[in-house]
Amino acid sequence: MEKRSIKVNIWGNEYALKSDVNPQYLQEIADYVDQKMRKLGESSQVKSSEKIAVLTALNIADEFFRLKRKHEKLVKEIESTSEEITENLDTYLNQYSDFIK
Description:
By secondary structure, the chain is an alpha+beta fold. It has one domain. Helices cover about 70% and strands about 15% of the residues. The protein is built from two helices and two strands; from the N terminus they run ββαα. The protein has helices spanning about 25-45, 50-100; strands spanning about 5-10, 15-20. A hairpin with a 2-residue loop joins strand 1 and strand 2. The longest helix is centred in the last third of the chain and has 52 residues, at about 50-100.
């Protein structure tokens, strides 16, 4: 896929990004980061852009790890339920097979 340039604005700074992902998706990510930085900047005594960026990165990383753990838990639950269904199906098929003999 061909890399395209897109300009995004985060915390009042314009960044020229080059990526092969959908520009709308990249803009959505930039808007999300900008929104998080602005929210933190408004509710915090911290005024340094660098500190706001680091704190925002930590908050986003926290969100990511929480969602990752939740996802892993759901995958395990799905795998467990799938195994249980498969075992039950095997049991019922064996019973049916014995019944029709």
